Amino acid sequence: EMKGDKDSTGSFTSTKSSPSDPDAFLSQVRDRTQARLYDAVSFLPGVDAEPDLSYLVRTVRAILATNDEIWERCKGKRCHHGSPDVSLVDLKRGLCFRRISYTKIVAMSRSTPSGWPSSSVTQLHFETAAERSVESFGFPDGLPSQLSSIIVPRMNPDGIFTDYTHFLESTLLLHKDILIPFLACLKEHLEIQQVYLGKINRWLMEPEECAAFIEENFGKKIDIPEELMCDSSCKERHKDDAICANCKRPHGEHRPDSPYSSAGRHICPGWGSNQRGLFPLSFGKPVLLKSCDTPGEHRDTFDIGKESERERLRRFLAFIFYTTSEC
Ligand SMILES: [Zn+2]
Ligand SMILES: [Zn+2]
Ligand SMILES: [Zn+2]
Ligand SMILES: [Zn+2]
């Protein structure tokens, strides 16, 4: 559908210079539109090899399929307003995603009494703990105005992405002279979108990479929990605005577990209620991965989400194995 409105540059439908001859008018509109589209693509028409129509249709559909697949994988981990672990500020900055991961390994020396007075054995502990994190990825780029001024996009029901399948179908009705640069421009936009989605996907895949690293280097299988929740009898003082998974009311409205102690507040609000509240935790309980009798004092943290840190930990483990027989 052609947009009859004047666009921001005012050049699209300036009736003053329109020729009265219909054929001349038609080709003038097409030439202008074509020029604007070629302005928006990275190749130079007449200089670079121009992509042909079937190549463009095939490529655009392939990128669309991949982008859909990535989004399907990621969207379940998206935080919405009302999620207990995301602030309104984060949500205004972009799409936010949540993950639970074992991304940090702490190596720490612990002294254990050996039975003899004043003597102790130093043990080196390698520990990790599940950690909840939320990351904001900014918003995806909208369609370039060169495209949306020619075909008005429809949004998907999620309100985030354009309904590209519908958009592509409408696009195919354009005159071929317009269609080639139009699809070239759409292709470049979708490639940018793939980079955006890829960033989210990589961040969400990191927990699995970390678990694989742990299994490989410590021989321990790590299950990544779907959620990190307190057991509704914990002694942790949750944040007052933490939302209860049971009654959806904030922690601050919950009553103390016992009238004699103020340690935990897990009784859901409501007259005579004995429902127990469940609140999200930022960290799970520490998991001991390995301990060995190692003389000397060590204290180090390894962020195994990064390859450089994984390499540093591999070297450290090799050093410990080399200097310690009991490990
Ligand atoms: Zn929402
Ligand atoms: Zn320990
Ligand atoms: Zn609790
Ligand atoms: Zn509750």
Automatic annotation (TrEMBL):
Biased composition regions of type Polar residues, renumbered to the chain: 9-20
Region (Disordered): 1-25
Protein name: Uncharacterized protein
Native species: Pseudictyota dubia
